[in-house]
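Researcher: I'd like a candidate sequence for this fold, 366 residues long. If you have to choose between options at a position, lean toward the conservative one.
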C-alpha cells in the first residue's frame, strides 16, 4: 500500500488536513507545536467513480476501493536535522513513507500562532527543505565512505554509487532536494538505494482560507508555492483544510452542493488523494463479480501475470490468460454477456501490459 507522510512546520494545518482525509477526528488539531507526537495513521480510499456503476452492473453491494495510507507526522522546526524539537523522530517517520505531502500555510489568521511569527510559505518550504537536505547530506557522506572502501576491494557497483553521489551531494550542500538533480534511469535506481528523504516524490498542499478557495490565482502565497513546485517537477494542490474537515460532517451530496456554492467543483481532499496515488506512477485495474467489485493497485507498465499476483500468488503462478475489457466498453454494453457477444472481451497473455480501468478476470490453474 502506498504510504504518504503529511509534513510541515507546526500550526500549518497538518492534523486538520489529516482529519479531513480520514473523515474522522483522530488527530489532535491544537494551536500549539507538537500536538501530534506519534504519527497518526489513516487508511484512505482513493476516490473512484467507476466502482459504484460497476457494482450496479454486476449486482453486488460490496465495493473495495484502492487505498492510500496517510501518516500525520509531528511538526518540524529549525535544527531538526540535529535533533531539535522532535527532529530525529520526524526524520525517521518520513523515511518510512513513499511520498511526502508538505502542507504549506497560505492564509493569515492572528488566532493561529505561526512558529516563525509571520506567515511566509517560501521561508517555510526552505526551512523544511534545508533540514531534510542536511539529514540527507549526512546519509550521503556515510554512503560515500562505504563506497570508497568497497571500491578498493574491486566492487564495480561502488564506482557507480560514487558517480551518483558526485551529482547529488552538491545539490544537498546547497540545500536543494535530491529529486531536482537530473539522473538517468540507472542512476536514479542507484540513488533510491540511498533512501534519501529529499528524493521522495512531493506534493505541496497550499492550505488557504475559505474565501481564497474559489480564486487561488489571486493569492500571492499560492503563486509562490506553485512556482516552487514547478521548479522541482513536484505537484501542488490548493486546499482549505479547515473547510474540508468541516465538510466531513455533511452527507456526500451536501458537500458537493456547498463546494459549488463557493465556486469550487471538486473536493481538494479528493484531488490530493488522487495526486498521491498517481505521483508514484500507480494505476488501478478492476475486478467485478457477484462477491465484490474491487480496485487493485499496480505500477503503470505492469504485465498481466504480475498483476494477477496482486490478487493472489497462486493466480500468478498458475496464470493461463486474462479476460480483459475496458470499463467504458463494459458499462456501454450493459453486461458481460452482451460485451462477449459484441467481441469486446479480449483474451490476453502474460506479457500484456495492463491499462488503467481494465476490468479483468484471470484464468489460472494450479
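Model: Candidate sequence:
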Amino acid at each position: 500500500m502506498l504510504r504518504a507522510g503529511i509534513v510541515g512546520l507546526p500550526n500549518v494545518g497538518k492534523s486538520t488536513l489529516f482529519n479531513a482525509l480520514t473523515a474522522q477526528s483522530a488527530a489532535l488539531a491544537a494551536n500549539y507545536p507538537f500536538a501530534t507526537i506519534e504519527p497518526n495513521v489513516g487508511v484512505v480510499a482513493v476516490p473512484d467513480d467507476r466502482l459504484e456503476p460497476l457494482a450496479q452492473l454486476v449486482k453486488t453491494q460490496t465495493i473495495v476501493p484502492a487505498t492510500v495510507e496517510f501518516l500525520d507526522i509531528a511538526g518540524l522546526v529549525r535544527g531538526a536535522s540535529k535533533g531539535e524539537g522532535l527532529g530525529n523522530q520526524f526524520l525517521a517517520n518520513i523515511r518510512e513513507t513513499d511520498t511526502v505531502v508538505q502542507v504549506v500555510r497560505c492564509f493569515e489568521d492572528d488566532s493561529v500562532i505561526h512558529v516563525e511569527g509571520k506567515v511566509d510559505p517560501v521561508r517555510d518550504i526552505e526551512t523544511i527543505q534545508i533540514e531534510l537536505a542536511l539529514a540527507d547530506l549526512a546519509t550521503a557522506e556515510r554512503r560515500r565512505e562505504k563506497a570508497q572502501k568497497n571500491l578498493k576491494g574491486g566492487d564495480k557497483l561502488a564506482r557507480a554509487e560514487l558517480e551518483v553521489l558526485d551529482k547529488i551531494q552538491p545539490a544537498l550542500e546547497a540545500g536543494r532536494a535530491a529529486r531536482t538533480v537530473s539522473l538517468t534511469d540507472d542512476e536514479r535506481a542507484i540513488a533510491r538505494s540511498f533512501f534519501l528523504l529529499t528524493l521522495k516524490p512531493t506534493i505541496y498542499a497550499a492550505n488557504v482560507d475559505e474565501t481564497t478557495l474559489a480564486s487561488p490565482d489571486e493569492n500571492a502565497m499560492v503563486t509562490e508555492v506553485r512556482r516552487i513546485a514547478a521548479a522541482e517537477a513536484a505537484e501542488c494542490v490548493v486546499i482549505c483544510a479547515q473547510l474540508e474537515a468541516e465538510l466531513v460532517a455533511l452527507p456526500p451530496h451536501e458537500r458537493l452542493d456547498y463546494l459549488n456554492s463557493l465556486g469550487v467543483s471538486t473536493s481538494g481532499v479528493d484531488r490530493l488523494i488522487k495526486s498521491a496515488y498517481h505521483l508514484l506512477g500507480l494505476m488501478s485495474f478492476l475486478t467485478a463479480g457477484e462477491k465484490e467489485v474491487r480496485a487493485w493497485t499496480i505500477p503503470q507498465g505492469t504485465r498481466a501475470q504480475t498483476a494477477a499476483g496482486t490478487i493472489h500468488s497462486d493466480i500468478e503462478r498458475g496464470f493461463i490468460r486474462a479476460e480483459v475489457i475496458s470499463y467504458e466498453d463494459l458499462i456501454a454494453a450493459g453486461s458481460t454477456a452482451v460485451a462477449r457477444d459484441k467481441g469486446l472481451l479480449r483474451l490476453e497473455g502474460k506479457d500484456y501490459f495492463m491499462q488503467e480501468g481494465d476490468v479483468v478476470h484471470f484464468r489460472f490453474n494450479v
